């Protein structure tokens, strides 16, 4: 099933010429997260795979994204859905082969799409050769220094070496068993016991990851998403925290295992490696265009910006934005803070609403605010979808780069009622079912047809690793394609306009406009000398090059002065309604609706 370059459609054989002319593609890129387990299953075993992704790349090109980020597909026992890596240079057979990865990268480039892969440097799998050997060799072996092995406390070493708690629940330490069957040392795992943490004070760990980065760069990838980028360095002496319920402290306090200043040295080193690689589409231009994006949960946006200083990484996920409620004041505050923190280090802001670790935003916005990002209730679905569509237009109107999570362009909700017996998220089991509802956002994508797995796999009635709800037949790509009121067509239209309008995309500022309570209104202007990548004049139909986005976050219609000519509305029924037939003066914007305007 692997698709070779020569199989790619001829119309897509070369990268778009305009792309070749663009500087710093990542500054305003729209990057689509593919979760390989759940995207497309080419071989029908119920699990998505790389040939499945390759076959669907034309869909992503047509959607209008710039790049694809793939969650891990490396050799792994799948104790944490592939975030437990046993071999960083091999593809897990469940996803295909290294040749399939190569095919995918080439096919993506032929379509003008970039490819970003995950790198998981904080921990590996307990089935990684280094860890297996370290276990075999026992206490005192230098191989154990590549991890955090420690004797236990208590008279018989029966207590963990410190009080750290795993992010997935329970202690962050597991005791080993020696060759003679007696209890031995403990090892540190911030996540599942099957995910031992590397010791980044050991030079072999640095060398290994330099080599892993080069391996994938040599294969042609355009960059990396750095898993748990804030976790690599632990405070000297692994000090106690002195507090239980440590999860509640995350993101607010500095923890001895997160966001330690020592991580920055690692990223300065990695940046040099990325910069060694010549730009792919603009030979001769400097610097390199290979990028890295940090998954860095930090106490403040300003701390996240430190990862993006000019000699470190390129982008970081904006988790503060992802966690913001559907509230104009809150959204405006986080947008302002993000632009100012990222602007201070010359990095683009990024925006994200969903990913494989949190409840999908169509469900988050369907629930009362303040419930967090692991929700169990479906909430008011219609409301959630309406807000999700408006949130998409808001996100895509902001300056910088946006991350989409597969299926959000279909308006998919979280599946909140998965039976316990099909769940696979390790945090669900570690936390005794109290937390860890990440499977709900990982249910395979519906592509077509009326019978599960809805084109996810090749055979109607065939398997899928998590069951899809029956109502997803109506949400499939096939069902939405060509329907102007569908969420899919809304995303396509928005992404097309984003390419065409010079005012959208890169840039570092918005100009806020006066607006009624609960409404966001801001203007974007084309930077000096900027041209969109398409025909802006045609898109704006004779209007100037300015752009305004208005978002009504309230549950009631609001009336306001029309800022210009409506281009796109998140309301399925169309654009703003003129008041008294005078669209040039006052319009009514429906509840929970965003509108793009040309001015
Ligand atoms: C990151 C991943 C998450 C994984 C964890 C441990 O947060 O996004 O899915 O469980 O790291 O690797």
TrEMBL record:
Coiled coil spans: none
Gene3D superfamilies: Glycosidases, Oligo-1,6-glucosidase, Domain 2
Keyword terms: Hydrolase
Pfam families the UniProt entry points to: Alpha-amylase
GO molecular function, one term: hydrolase activity
Ranges for domain Glycosyl hydrolase family 13 catalytic: 33-438
Cited SMART domains: Aamy
Similarity remark: Belongs to the glycosyl hydrolase 13 family.
Protein name, as recorded: Alpha-amylase family glycosyl hydrolase
Species of origin: Actinacidiphila polyblastidii
């Amino acid at each position: 099933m692997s698709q070779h370059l020569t199989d790619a459609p001829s119309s897509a054989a070369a990268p778009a010429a305009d792309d070749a002319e663009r500087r710093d593609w990542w500054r305003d890129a729209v990057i689509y997260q593919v979760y390989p387990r759940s995207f497309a299953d080419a071989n029908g075993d119920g699990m998505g795979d790389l040939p499945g992704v390759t076959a669907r790349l034309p869909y992503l090109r047509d959607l209008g994204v710039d790049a694809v980020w793939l969650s891990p597909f490396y050799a792994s026992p799948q104790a944490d859905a592939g975030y437990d890596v046993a071999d960083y240079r091999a593809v897990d057979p469940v996803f295909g082969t290294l040749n399939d990865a190569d095919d995918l990268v080439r096919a993506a480039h032929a379509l003008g799409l970039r490819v970003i892969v995950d790198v998981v440097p904080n921990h590996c799998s307990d089935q990684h050769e280094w860890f297996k050997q370290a276990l075999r060799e026992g206490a005192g072996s230098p191989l154990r220094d590549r991890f955090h092995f420690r004797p236990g406390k208590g008279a018989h070493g029966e207590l963990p070496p410190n009080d750290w708690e795993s992010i997935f629940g329970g202690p962050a330490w597991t005791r080993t068993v020696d060759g003679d069957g007696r209890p031995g040392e403990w090892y540190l795992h911030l996540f599942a016991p099957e995910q031992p943490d590397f010791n980044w004070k050991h030079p072999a760990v640095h060398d290994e990851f330099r080599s892993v980065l080069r391996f994938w760069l040599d294969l042609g990838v355009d960059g990396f998403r750095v898993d748990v980028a804030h976790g690599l360095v632990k405070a000297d002496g692994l000090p106690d925290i002195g507090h239980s319920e440590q999860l509640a402290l995350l993101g607010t306090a500095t923890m001895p295992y997160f966001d330690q200043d020592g991580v920055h040295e690692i990223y300065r080193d990695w940046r040099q490696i990325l910069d060694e690689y010549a730009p792919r589409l603009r030979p001769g231009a400097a610097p390199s265009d290979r990028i890295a994006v940090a998954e860095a949960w930090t106490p403040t946006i300003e701390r996240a910006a430190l990862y993006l200083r000019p000699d470190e990484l390129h982008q970081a996920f904006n988790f503060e934005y992802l966690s913001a409620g559907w509230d104009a004041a809150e959204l405006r505050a986080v947008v302002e803070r993000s632009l100012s923190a990222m602007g201070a280090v010359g990095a683009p802001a990024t925006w994200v609403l969903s990913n494989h670790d949190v409840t999908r935003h169509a469900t988050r916005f369907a629930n009362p605010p303040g419930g967090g990002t692991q929700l169990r209730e479906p909430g008011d679905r219609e409301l959630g979808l309406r807000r999700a569509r408006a949130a998409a237009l808001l996100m895509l109107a902001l300056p910088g780069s946006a991350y989409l999570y597969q299926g959000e362009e279909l308006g998919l909700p979280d599946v909140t009622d998965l039976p316990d017996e099909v769940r696979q998220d390790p945090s669900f089991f570690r936390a005794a079912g109290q937390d860890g509802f990440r499977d709900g956002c990982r249910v395979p994508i519906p592509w077509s047809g009326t019978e599960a797995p809805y084109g996810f796999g090749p055979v109607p009635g065939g398997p899928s690793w998590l069951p899809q709800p029956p109502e997803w037949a109506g949400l499939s790509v096939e069902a939405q394609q060509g329907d102007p009121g569908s969420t899919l067509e809304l995303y396509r239209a928005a992404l097309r306009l984003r390419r065409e309008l010079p005012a959208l995309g890169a840039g570092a500022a918005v100009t806020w406009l006066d607006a009624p309570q609960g409404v966001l209104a801001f203007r974007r202007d084309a930077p000096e000398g900027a041209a969109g990548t398409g025909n802006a004049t045609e898109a704006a139909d004779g209007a100037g090059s300015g752009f305004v986005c208005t978002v009504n976050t309230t549950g009631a219609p609001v009336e306001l002065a029309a800022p210009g000519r409506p281009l796109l509305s998140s309301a399925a029924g169309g654009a703003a309604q003129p008041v008294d037939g005078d669209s040039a003066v006052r319009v009514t914007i429906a509840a929970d609706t965003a509108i793009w305007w040309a001015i």
